[in-house]
Specification:
The complex is a heterodimer of chains A (321) and B (377). With 321 residues, chain A is of the alpha/beta class. Chain A is 34% helix and 28% strand. Chain A has two domains: 5-214, Rossmann fold (3-Layer(aba) Sandwich); 226-303, Alpha-Beta Plaits, CATH 3.30.70. Chain A has helices at residues 44-51, 73-79, 95-103, 112-118, 134-146, 164-179, 191-197, 215-220, 242-250, 252-256, 278-291, 306-314, and strands spanning 5-14, 18-28, 33-37, 59-64, 80-83, 152-156, 183-188, 200-205, 208-213, 226-233, 261-267, 270-275, 295-303. Chain A has a six-stranded mixed beta sheet with strand order 5-6-7-3-8-9, with helices on both faces. In chain A, strands 11-12-10-13 form a four-stranded antiparallel beta sheet. In chain A, α3 (95-103) crosses α4 and α3 packs parallel to α5 (134-146). The longest helix of chain B is centred in the middle third of the chain and has 31 residues, at 182-212. Chain B has helices at residues 31-45, 48-68, 87-95, 112-120, 145-161, 182-212, 215-220, 226-256, 264-285, 292-309, 324-328, 331-345, 353-373; strands at residues 77-82, 105-110, 126-130, 136-139. A four-stranded mixed beta sheet of chain B has the order 2-1-3-4. The chains are: A alpha/beta (321), B mainly alpha (377). The interface between A and B is medium-sized, with 36 and 33 residues.
Chain lengths: 321, 377
């Protein structure tokens, strides 16, 4: 049996104009949790719906366990479970009735009781769907995907709009599914979700993959796992005015040459340094600021994140600001 | 499968367990169909508004219209009797009831001048005065039918009162027997209109709503057979049809003593074909709409001509004869005509084959086109 998900050169053009996906290839291994990370409108949903067989690509090829959607759609549907970005399930059915309805579509479903237990919905099993909280509704959506006993789970933005606790509950559900040998493909625009949940991920922007690898690989490519951010102002105490920002911008190359610095970028008045060894960089930085006659107004260090990777690759943040 | 008739309870934790069929470890071929049908009926049952519009509203409508157009006594004609020696006696003989039936005349005694003035204002249909020589003087307007009628009735009453004997034997048969009244015409029309409404809304609106909620897309992302889904939608229409038609029929029979001349099996078959035909039309109307608002507009657009032309509330014979061929090929016209023939005249199924064929063609063609154009996403 082939890989759970493979695709080559996917392209999708809407109405002959809008190119949502522009040549995208993926190989996802059995038991992997693979993430498509990117901002809204990057083409993630189009891509996942093509892989799910809900959209036909304009060109390119998809194989699920070495079968195409054209050859054997019903068999493929038995193997996969899907949670769409936005489905409003019938509000006047109970949780249990909803699960049993979806179970009835599959040849070998799991028992509704077990699925409800796994997704911590047992207490709510006789409640109407309309009475559930956002997190419970999202768990129910995932439950409808899991009740068919799938080999692959597709989740499109599974935790968008959920509170932190509900997000962690969903992550736990995904990990449990993965531990049992399942393969997961999810889309997200949350870097923390991608970082904690995904074994590998592809950063998608404007319909193409701009970077692919494990989260730590991608962060490694920044050159340093630490980020040092600072603002500096003129010595007369006028604060971090835009004038001083310009001054600092002119000397970006100067900051780049400090010891341990791998990359430099500027956001508004803040200079961000990607740093391999902060204990070497920071003393040198302080010295340099003093030497130029500037005053340090703000200094912080943190671990580098996928957000930094995305910003470095595109010059933009994941969440539009 | 059974549909429990308990009303759903709002407190979530206390809801009674529904006796849904338990999924077997391995689902049977028809599990999907059975569950889809089951949840459709459950959802309907839990939607009080739908229950009202499908079942309650037609009953109220037939009750209201039946009462409004019930067979009330014919209007009385008013007679002014000019004051004179015998005026009171004349008035009494005109207003008196004969053989238990109320008099068709409503007499009033007044002065001559006042009587003529009131006549000109239309308050009286005729003025009668006994002259000094005993002759009866009638003042009336030959161009007003009620005036002519009032004069004849007054003359007839006075003559009869004076001891006239009729030369010709007479047998009167007033027509107010069940089967030929307005309510008898109305109820089959309401049954037809109801079948159209619930077919169009129950299928068309429901599908667009599910499409808008992305539920259709979610369903086709499972191994669900699309044919099972559509069959479940149509089956639920058939089940509801039996209830809708049955309720209105029983209501008509109990409240208005409407006779049902035809066989119930014929009626069920006509209803079934109609439910499927309008379901197909609903499916076609809804095959591409993405928003329930646009679907509502489309559904009303399709139904509007039939509300007007298909003879629900009054006979389409009132429209010019040239329009009749077009009116008769509308599905609701065919249905209403067939329902009236079966319910009121006891027509057999074969005698209605042309009308049923019209319905079946509308349904069949709609179905084929709908399946061709239907959007699941």
């Amino acid at each position: 049996m082939g890989l759970p998900i493979e695709c080559w050169n996917l392209r999708k053009t809407y109405d002959g104009k809008v190119e949502a996906v522009r040549g995208l290839s993926l190989r996802i291994e059995t038991g992997e949790c693979f993430g498509l990370l990117g901002p809204n409108g990057a083409g993630k949903t189009t891509t996942i719906e093509i892989l799910e067989g809900l959209l036909a690509p304009t060109s390119g090829e998809v194989r699920i366990f070495d079968q195409t959607w054209g050859e054997n759609p019903r068999q493929l549907r038995q193997w996969i479970g899907i949670s769409l970005q936005e489905t409003r399930l019938s509000e006047k059915l109970t949780v249990r009735e909803t699960i049993e309805l979806f179970a009835s579509f599959y040849d070998e479903p799991r028992s509704a009781v077990d699925v409800l237990e796994d997704l911590q919905l047992t207490e709510k099993s006789n409640s109407w769907v309309g009475k559930l909280s956002g997190g419970q509704k999202q768990r129910l959506a995932v439950a409808t995907a899991l009740v068919g006993n799938p080999r692959i789970l597709f989740l499109d933005e599974p935790t968008t709009g959920l509170d932190p606790q509900s997000r962690r509950q969903l992550w736990e559900i995904v990990r449990t599914f993965q531990k049992k040998g399942g393969t997961v493909l999810l889309t997200t625009h949350y870097m923390d979700e991608a970082e904690r949940l995904c074994d590998r991920l592809a950063i998608v922007d404007h319909g193409v993959i701009i970077a692919e690898g494990t989260p730590s690989d991608l962060i490694d490519r920044l050159g340093g796992h630490h980020v040092v951010e600072f603002q500096a102002g003129a010595p007369n105490g006028n604060g971090a005015s835009s004038a001083s920002g310009d001054l600092l911008a002119q000397t970006l190359d100067g900051w780049r040459s400090l010891p341990g610095v791998e990359a430099v970028r500027r956001e508004d008045n803040t200079i961000c340094l990607n740093v391999r060894e902060p204990h070497l960089t920071i003393p040198a930085l302080l010295e340099a600021v003093n030497g130029q006659g500037h005053r340090l107004e703000h200094l912080s260090t943190r671990q580098a994140s996928l957000e930094d990777v995305f910003v470095q690759l595109t010059g933009r943040h994941l969440r539009g600001e | 499968m059974t549909v429990e008739t308990t009303t759903p309870q709002i407190p979530q934790s206390e809801q009674p367990r529904q006796s849904a069929p338990q999924p077997a470890p391995r689902s049977s071929r028809w599990a999907g169909y059975r569950y889809l049908l089951w949840v459709r009926l459950l959802e309907l049952k839990r939607e009080p508004e739908i229950i009202f519009w499908v079942f309650g509203f037609p009953l109220l409508l037939s009750l209201g219209l039946g009462l409004a157009f019930r067979n009330k006594p014919a209007d009385q004609n008013s007679v002014a009797v000019v004051a004179g020696p015998n005026a009171a006696q004349i008035a009494a003989s005109l207003g008196g009831s004969s053989s238990g039936k109320p008099s068709p005349l409503r007499p009033a005694v007044m002065e001559r001048g006042a009587a003529l003035k009131a006549f000109r204002l239309g308050k009286f249909d005729v003025v009668v005065e006994q002259k000094a020589d005993g002759a009866y003087w009638y003042y009336y307007d030959p161009s007003r039918p009620e005036s002519m009628l009032a004069r004849l009735l007054t003359m007839d009453a006075l003559e009869a009162n004076a001891g006239r004997t009729d030369k010709l034997p007479v047998i009167n048969s007033p027509s107010s027997a069940p089967g030929s009244r307005y309510i008898d015409f109305l109820i089959p029309g309401l049954i037809g209109m109801n079948l159209m409404n619930s077919g169009m809304w129950g299928v068309g609106f429901a599908l667009v709503d599910m499409r808008q909620r992305k539920l259709l897309k979610r369903f086709v992302a499972t191994p669900m057979r699309r044919s099972d889904f559509l069959m479940a939608v149509m089956s639920s229409r058939l089940i509801l049809m039996v209830i809708e038609v049955g309720l209105l029929l029983i209501f008509g029979m109990l409240v208005f003593h409407m006779p049902v001349a035809g066989s119930l099996w014929t009626l069920a078959l006509v209803g079934g074909i109609a439910a499927i035909a309008f379901g197909g039309l609903g499916l076609l109307t809804a095959c591409r709409a993405q928003k329930v608002e646009s679907a509502s507009g489309l559904i009303n657009l399709v139904m509007m001509p039939m509300w007007i032309f298909s003879g629900v509330f009054f006979s389409y014979e009132h429209f010019p004869a040239a329009a009749h061929p077009f009116i008769k090929v509308l599905p609701l016209t065919a249905l209403n005509d067939a329902l009236r023939a079966v319910i009121l005249e006891g027509a057999s199924l074969p005698s209605q084959s042309v009308r049923l064929l019209i319905l079946a063609l509308w349904g069949g063609i709609s179905f084929v086109l709908a399946l061709k154009w239907f959007r699941w996403t």
